[in-house]
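Reminder: ligand-aware prediction takes two inputs, not one.
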Amino acid sequence: MAAMAPTQPGGRDRFELEIVRLAAGADERPIFVAVFGLDRFERLRAVTGREAVVDVVDRLAARLGEYQPAWKIARIADDVLAAAFHAANEAAAVQWTHEARLGLQGEYSVGGHPIDVRLRAGLSAAGPPNALLREADIALDGARDARVHFNLFDASSHAKAVGALSLMPELRSALQRNQLSLVHQPKRDLKTGAVRGVESLVRWTHPTHGPIAPDVFVRLAEETADIYALTRWVMDRAIAEQEALMAAGHRLQFAVNLSGRLVGDAAFIDWVIDRGPAQRGALRLEITETAMIEHPADAIANVAQLRTAGIPCSIDDFGSGLASLGYLKRIDADELKLDKGVIDELSRSRRDRLITRSIVDLAHSLGMSVVAEGVESAESAALAAASGCDLAQGYFTGYPMPLAELINILTGEAEQASARAVATG
Ligand code: C2E
Ligand code: CA
Ligand code: CA
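Here is what comes back for the chain with C2E:
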C-alpha cells in the first residue's frame, strides 16, 4: 500500500493553534482576532486568476507584519487575511483594526495590472481563544452583508444569525415551565469580608443546546419584548428565594438587573413598585450606565420614583461606557458598581489608581457606596480596598451559586463567627 501523506493542517487550523499559543503567553491583555477580506474577490479572480489574488493577499500579510511585528498574521483563505494580537481593550483593538485596514488598502500590481485593493474587516470580541477566529469570520460576513467596512462581532447579532430568534418561543415556554433558574453572587465588605448582599443572575439550560449565556438571551429578549416576562419572572423568583433564605436564618438584600428598555418604561416601574412591601429595601435594582445614557430623562425620573418607594438602585458597569462623572450627580442611585475593566486597570499604573480614587471619592461625597466588580484575586481586592471601594463582587468573593449553596456558605460563616466570638469573648 502506498504510504499516505500526512494530512496537512489547513491554514485556519494552524492559525487557531497560533491563537491558543498566543493566549498561553506572558502577555495578560485580552486577545483579539481581526480578519480582512478582499472586496470584490470574485470579480478580481475572474480577471486576474486565483494565483494572482492569493499572491496579493500574501503581500498584504507581509506588509501588515512589517507594520505590526508583534501580531500573528496568516492568510486563512484565498481572499482572507487574519491577525491575532493583544490589546488593552476593545476600543484599542477596534482602532488598530481600522488603522491596519486603511494602511493595507491601496494600489497593488496584480498579474501586471494596477488594481485598487479594498478590504472589509471583522473583529472578534475578547473571549475564549478557540472561538475568536470563528467570531471574527462571522463579523466579516456581517460587514459584507451590510456593505460596511468594519464589523465587530457581537453575541446578539450572531445569535440572530444562527436563527436564535427561534429561541424566543422556547424562552417563553421555559418561563412557563420554570426551566430558568437564578444564581446569586455574594458582594462582600472589603474591610470585614462579610457578605452584604447578592446579585441574582438568571440562568437558562436549554434541553438540547445546553446552557445559553444570559448575555445572548437577555439581549434577544430585549429586542422581542420578552424582556418584560423575563424580568417579572426574575423578580418574583428573587423574592421567593430571598424568603427561603430568610427562613434559613439569613437576611440579605438581593439585586436584580433591570434592562435599559424597562428603565424608561413608567408602566413597568409602577408594576415593580406595586409588587408591594415584600421588596422594600429587600430588592435592589441594577441599571447599566448605558441604559441611563440612552433614556436620560426617563431614567432619572424613574430611579427617583423607585427610591421614593423604598427600592434602592445601583449604577451598573460604570466606566465601561461613556457616562460622565457629572451624570452621577443627576441620578438618585445609592450604589455605584465599577466595571471589571476599571478594576483591572488598578494594577496598571498610579495614574489609573488616582482616576479611580477620584471617582470613588465623588461617589462617596454623593452618598453612594462603591462596589468593585470582577474582583478575581486577593491582589485585586486589596487594590480595590486601597482605592476606597466599599464592597467587592467577583470570583474572589464567590462564584454565582444556587440558593442552597449560598445558604451553606452563609451558615458556615455564621458558625465560624460565633465560634470566634466565644473564643475571644
Ligand atoms: P452583569 O450585570 O455585569 O453581571 C455580572 C457578570 O459578571 C455575570 O455574568 C457574572 O457571572 C460575571 N462575573 C462575576 N464575577 C466575575 C469575575 O470575577 N470575573 C469575570 N470575568 N466575570 C465575573 P453573567 O451571569 O454571564 O451575566 C452577564 C450579563 O447578563 C450581566 O452582566 C447582566 O447584564 C446580564 N444579566 C444576567 N442576568 C440578568 C437578568 O436577570 N436580567 C437582566 N436584564 N440582565 C441579566
Ligand atoms: Ca449587574
Ligand atoms: Ca456589572
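The first strand starts at residue 31 and ends at 38. Residues 1-9 have pLDDT under 50 and may be disordered. We will return to this case in the review session.
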